[in-house]
Amino acid sequence: MKTRRSLGDMIAVSSPRISLMGSRNRTDTDTARTQEWHREPAPLERPARSGELVRLRQRFRREATERRDRRSGDRRLRVLAYSLVLSRSARPDEDWNTLQTEAEQRGYAMGARFHDVAVPATTTCLPGSGAGCGVYTPPWKRPGWGEVERLVRGGFADGVIVLDRHNISSDDDEYHAVIKELGERYQAFIHLVIPEELSGPT
């Protein structure tokens, strides 16, 4: 003689509750609690500043163009080329070709070329200290960049052309400081062949 089982009994037999720990005695609440305890904490994400950095950099370029137009509309903006190479044996020749091509396409007059060898930063940066710290020594401690600033300060160039922002600094605070220094103090701009990343941390 067949016994009738309720629908609830059949479901309980066909799909037992199994927790992450392998015990059949735990409830769904226990399982959820166990999952919560073993979940890795979400990483603290720093908001991307790329948009702000792009706007600031473009503002100084626009201002340089407007100044040039007021003074002499037919004069091209003068830029210095800068590159950061990764070793003493590396040559920036390929960068120079790319920078020259970009300068011609943008209508810039490219002047002197400078480069530095990347030296890993040795300083310790404390989180939340407000002080920037890139992967390599900051640009103001590099001899080639020092020459770039000297010529910009002397009025021999309207800006600097580089391959990407990491040739200057991978750190947002350092990079922001350089853009502002050139733009506000010397009325010069930075032109990037490869624009800043518009999403994700830098």
List its traits.
4 strands; four-stranded parallel beta sheet; 202 residues; 6 helices; 12% strand; alpha/beta
Describe the structure.
The protein is of the alpha/beta class. It is 40% helix and 12% strand. The chain is built from 6 helices and 4 strands. The protein has a 4-stranded parallel beta sheet with strand order 2-1-3-4, sandwiched between helices. Helix 6 (172-186) links the parallel strand 3 (159-162) and strand 4 (189-192). Helix 3 (50-71) runs parallel beside helix 6. It is globular and about 45 Å long.
Layout: helices, strands, pairs:
Layout: H1 7-14, H2 28-38, H3 50-71, E1 78-85, H4 93-106, E2 109-117, H5 143-153, E3 159-162, H6 172-186, E4 189-192
Parallel strand pairs: 1-2, 1-3, 3-4
DSSP strand tally: 4
The ordered string of helix (H) and strand (E) elements is HHHEHEHEHE
Number of helices: 6
Distance between the amino and carboxyl termini: 73 Å
Characterize the overall form.
globular
SS strand fraction: 5-15%
Helicity level, as a percent range? 40-55%
The major β-sheet equals:
4 strands, parallel
Helix/strand-derived class? alpha/beta
